[in-house]
Amino acid sequence: MKDSNTIDWAALRKDFPILDQQVHGKPLVYFDNAATSQKPRAVIDALVRYYEHDNANVHRGIHELSNRATAGYEAARARAAKFINAKSSDEIVFTRGTTEGINLVAATWGAKNLKAGDVILLTEMEHHSNLVPWQLLAQKTGAKIVYLPVTGDEGILDLSKLDSLLTKQVKIFSMVHISNSLGTVNPVADLCARARKLGIVTLVDGAQSAGHLPVDVRAIGCDFFAFSGHKICGPTGIGVLWGRQELLNAMPPYQGGGEMILSVEYQKTEFKPAPHRFEAGTPDISGPIGLHAAMDYLDTIGRENIWKHDQELAQYAYEKLAALKNIRLFGPKPVVAQASRLCDSGLQLTGKMPVSPGRAGLVSFLLKDVHAHDVVTLADQAGVALRGGHHCTQPLMHKLGVESTARASFYFYNTRAEVDRFVEVVKEIQKFFGQ
Ligand SMILES: Cc1ncc(COP(=O)(O)O)c(C=O)c1O
Predict the structure, then answer these.
(1) DSSP conformational letter for 322
(2) Which terminus of the chain has fewer CB atoms gathered within 10 Å of its CB, N or C?
């Protein structure tokens, strides 16, 4: 890992060929990283190399190419285990992404362990991926969903309600690590510890955290952790579900087919242990290989450094936006805070950090009397890629009394100069609407 003071962040942009382009005649400012990140040359090269040299099906062949493909696929599993400090690579299930990881847990662990009257505890800031699978499960089992509330526009969990919600009926507490709509960083280690004391299983949705700060699933103390490759510089279509080995091995399979069996008879099948029992059929092979390259790439920069960079950029953007009139900002206010508080995210830093550990690298906002889609459309004309909409958190939007927000989300290849450009564009949009 590099020292943050010696990193030339602007130079890292050269690793991302896509960033060097004009959109509508203006230099591209890509601020839609919470939706998906861009891919460095190292990842693109790993994919090309795999298809040019090693492509074959995994696990089934005895020929050289199949052995190489299998070795690459399993090496990626071991790398993913290291990336989140899992005990063993047998705890790493490859999925299509966070959504599939959560669906897998709901459909297998949930179907086996939940019954009518049980409670699934979520928070009010969940992405639809950590909400709809539980609704489907609740409909099937008769379990009930209960929500830990979010307080107002600052978007912080109301922890004073937690004790009364952690009842005997709660069987699983599934929570987002970093909110994609608000930028809130939740104290997941604390939440998991409180649930664990009562024997409640926990799942952490790490879609927005895994590539942005060091994640240590053992320090967090959760039972399941899910993330997506495409949000951490890897390819689309690949993700990771981590689960404690004893839980994974006690869960029924997700899908049936080849690769996940020990033996099959006409009337019955014996399944492999985890993780293979959850990977039926020919898997995405190039995905893990690209993801491996992405994890190496990120950890060469260092996720502590990325976290610090993203937070600084978010604070800079937040303060510049907050200085405008007729703007409503969502999510926690950045404040100077002790980095040691980040330990509950699995991040072990000491000393002063310049910004709040409670806000990640994104800013959601609304301009008075301007629809978020208009903001995004006009920003696009100026070369600035934002996202506008409910961000797959419709219930949260309704709770905040809005239909949508505009969101700028940052990654390590973004710069202050881009934030300046973005804020200029926001001001131009306000002028356009006569504000
Ligand atoms: C917090 C959060 N959870 C889950 C997801 C779903 O991720 P994916 O679509 O990669 O499965 C997202 C995607 O934006 C997200 O931001």
Answers:
(1) H
(2) N
Tokens for 99?
């959504």
Residue 385: phi and psi, rounded to 5, are -90, 110
Alpha-carbon Rg for the chain, nearest whole angstrom, is 22
Counting ligand 1 atoms within 8 A of each CB, the residue from 95, 209, 392, 409 with the most, and so the one to mutate, is 392
C-alpha–C-alpha distance, residues 160 and 213, integer Å: 27
The predicted-structure confidence for 137-163, as pLDDT tens digits, reads as follows: 999 999 999 999 999 999 999 999 999
Task: Enumerate helices (H) and strands (E) in the chain, giving the number of each.
Answer: 15, 21
Cis peptide before 253 (omega within 30 of 0): no
Provide the whole-model pTM.
Answer: 0.95
Structure token pair of residue 45:
């090269």
Q: What's the rounded mean pLDDT across residues 186-204? A: 97
Which residues lie with the beta carbon below 6 Å from any ligand 1 atom? 34, 97-99, 127, 129-130, 176, 180, 205, 207-208, 228
Report H helices in 13-160: 41-49, 64-83, 98-105, 111-113, 132-141
Tokens of 38: 């861009």
**Of 240, 266, 239, 241, which is closest to residue 251 (Cα–Cα)?**
241
List all residues 6 or more positions away from 188 whose beta carbon is below 8 Å from its beta carbon: 175, 177, 204, 220, 222, 344, 345
Catalytic residues: 392
Rounding to the nearest 10 degrees, give the CA dihedral for residues 14, 16, 20, 21.
180
Q: How many CA atoms lie within 13 A of 243 on its CB side?
A: 25
Calculate ∠ Cα 284-285-290, nearest 5°.
105
Cα–Cα distance between 201 and 383 in angstroms, integer? Answer: 45
